[in-house]
Design goal:
Chain B: This is Sugar ABC transporter permease. The complex is a heterodimer of chains A (303) and B (322). By secondary structure, chain A is mostly helical. Chain A contains 16 helices and no strands. Chain B folds into two domains: 21-64, no CATH class; 82-317, MetI-like fold (Orthogonal Bundle), CATH 1.10.3720. The chains are: A mainly alpha (303), B mainly alpha (322).
């Protein structure tokens, strides 16, 4: 990771040309400009990466290295001790740790499946049909991108308790179905499906639901991945939003926070659980990056 | 006689014509709605939930903000009392709004520019380097609640990286209680917030830059664009205005919503409320004190503040690149 970070800084001349073959085709590029911009990228890139590098290293440090003065960034004698300590700790919890894992996996999975299906179903008519109220409905969704969910948190508690969903998984899952950024991105992406494709299906006798399910849905797979990763990020890190009280329903994030906040005695196990928690979304992103970028290309807001 | 009857007929004619015309506008609408039955059915599940968990809560907040409501008794109408209390009596709210505006004024524009500048530089790299650097810059915002790693960096004892380094080179002799000292709290939260801020907006810019038509650059070079800065202003920015507007909404909304980082790093409540934001204030009254009317007033102010700023910024961005 570090070696790659250094690349833009080091042997500028030939390396740079290897790095950016576009440069030959592109005019208007001064060498000093390119050099200083890459230096900026390298420095800020290091700032972005260092805390994560530190988190990774901490997880493999033996306890005496975590409390070393002066503190070090990189581990000297890497060990798996923190992970085995974590396992030890987990076997002693009142609620079996696998239960926390199940809770988070269930909430994340159910939330994502429901959201992708509902948001795509709603995005399809908004992108491809003409009907009264379309502009109005879509502008409300855009408006809802402009404020934080914190605004709605308190009334949501009342609504969820009125629906009898408080202290169930559904208190976190059902509101996630209606996540507005997902609908927005899906709708923008669907607009680029050629109308001819839909017309052809219609002539072949397919009804709207069939068109949606077997023509539109397979064509928006990149957008699925984007919705999945955006919602994954939210639900994976969810601590229950204050809607879940029962210990056996609490999320992985909540449980690991207890370990992380455990102070000095738990420092090693805390670093290990933090590494595990953070690597899951990052790995997911690594594998879906190109599809997500493809979706984001259509994310623009028209005047 | 005849004349007048003709006139009458003439007068009646347009009236008769207008009536069915007005009728038919509605019937056309109704026909349209009937014809789009399938659209509404597809929309319905999402829209019902969206109404239930977004539209209804905002409306409820606005209504409750004019009441006293503690979740036990029925809401009691109190007029503008909550708002006058908020702005005239609640000193902590004024701190909160000052901090929130500070976050919005600093992290909003800085993170927006950072998103764009780094997306712009990264765009010049080869595809593999581009993917790698995108990951480096995007990773903090996606890695869940990893920001607590900054707790270790700014930890108050000498094992924290910041204290350790500064003591080693002799700038300070004793460890500093970074997160318990009022003067340091805000700058540290701003720093962490910036670290976390290259998220969805950043990805949208990376994607937007890749869609800019390459031939425009060649045409620009022929037409006298002399350096990368002119190219940026005259070609790149106008070509990706839609992404710029989307990114602005995302960055601005995030910068107004600072709460989790403040709570995780500075505690809740923070030392002398130094890190109180409108959202933490809302959490305080909504989930700790159960003063729902008052909390609703805070939520309404926050809502107005965010939507208002966003709409103004959208207007301004329409002018980018001439």
């Amino acid at each position: 990771m570090k070696a790659a970070l250094d690349v833009p800084g080091k042997p500028i001349g030939s390396k740079l040309r290897q790095l950016m073959p576009i440069r030959k085709k592109r005019v208007n590029r001064s060498f000093m400009g390119t050099f200083s911009l890459f230096m900026l990228l390298a420095v800020i890139g290091a700032f972005m990466a260092l805390p994560l590098v530190y988190a990774i290293n901490n997880a493999f440090k033996p306890l005496d290295e975590i409390f070393l003065f002066p503190p070090t960034l990189f581990v000297r004698n890497p060990t798996w001790n923190n992970f085995s300590e974590l396992m030890n700790l987990l076997s002693q919890t009142w609620v079996p740790f696998s239960r926390y894992i199940f809770n988070t996996v269930f909430i994340t999975g159910a939330g994502i499946v429901g959201h992708v299906i509902l948001a795509s179903a709603a995005a399809y008519p908004l992108a491809k049909h003409k009907f009264p109220g379309k502009t109005f409905l879509f502008s409300i969704v855009v408006l809802s991108l402009m404020f934080t969910p914190a605004v709605t948190a308190t009334p949501n508690y009342m609504i969820l308790s009125w629906l009898g969903l408080i202290d169930t998984y559904w208190a976190v899952i059902v509101p996630a179905f209606a996540y507005s950024l997902g609908l927005y991105l899906m709708k923008q992406f669907m607009e680029q499906i050629p109308d001819a494709l839909l017309e052809a299906a219609k002539i072949d006798g397919a009804n709207e639901y069939r068109i949606f399910w077997s023509i539109v849905m397979p064509n928006v797979k990149p957008a699925w991945l984007t919705l999945i990763i955006l919602l994954f990020q939210i639900l994976w890190g969810s601590d229950g939003n204050g809607f879940i009280y029962s210990e056996q329903l609490k999320t992985l994030h909540f449980a690991s926070n207890q370990i992380i906040m455990g102070g000095i005695a738990r420092a090693g196990a805390g670093a290990a659980v933090a590494l595990i928690l953070m690597s899951v979304p990052i790995i997911l992103f690594v594998f879906s990056q190109s599809r997500i970028i493809e979706t984001m290309a259509t994310s623009g807001m028209k005047d | 006689m005849q004349n007048s009857s003709i006139q009458e007929v003439k007068r009646a004619e347009p009236a008769q014509l207008r009536l069915p015309k007005k009728d038919s506008w509605w019937s056309i609408k109704r026909q349209e709605m009937k014809a789009s039955k399938h659209s509404y059915i597809l929309l319905a599940p999402y829209m019902i939930l969206f109404t239930l968990f977004t539209v209804l809560p905002v409306s409820v907040s606005i209504i409750l903000s004019f009441s006293y409501f503690n979740m036990l008794e029925l809401p009691r109408f109190v007029g503008w009392d909550n708002y006058t209390r908020l702005f005239l009596e609640d000193d902590i709210f004024l701190t909160a709004i000052k901090n929130t505006l500070l976050f919005a004024a600093i992290t909003g524009p800085v993170s927006y520019l950072a998103c764009f500048i780094f997306a712009w530089i990264i765009n010049e790299l080869t595809p593999r380097m581009r993917a790698f650097m995108t990951l480096i810059f995007y990773a903090p915002s996606i890695s869940g609640n990893i920001y607590f790693i900054w707790l270790m960096i700014f930890s108050g004892d000498r094992y924290g990286i910041a204290n350790g380094m500064l003591m080693k080179i002799g700038v300070i002799l004793e460890p500093i209680q970074w997160l318990k000292t009022e003067a340091y709290i805000m700058p540290i939260i701003i720093l962490v917030q910036l670290w976390l801020s290259l998220g969805t907006g950043f990805l949208a810019f990376i994607a937007g830059l890749q869609t800019v038509d390459r031939t425009l650059y060649e045409a620009g070079a022929v037409d006298g664009v002399r350096n990368r800065w002119q190219e940026l202003w005259y070609i790149t920015l106008p070509s990706m205005r839609p992404q710029l507007m989307f990114g602005a909404v995302i960055q601005l909304t995030t910068s107004f919503a600072v709460a989790d980082v403040s709570i995780a790093l500075a505690g809740f409540p923070s030392v002398n409320y130094a890190a109180e934001t409108v959202v933490t204030h809302l959490i305080d009254y909504g989930t700790t004190r159960f003063e729902m009317g008052y909390a609703s007033a805070i939520a309404t102010v926050l809502f107005g503040l965010m939507v208002g700023t966003n709409l103004i910024v959208q207007k301004l961005l329409q002018k980018v690149g001439g």
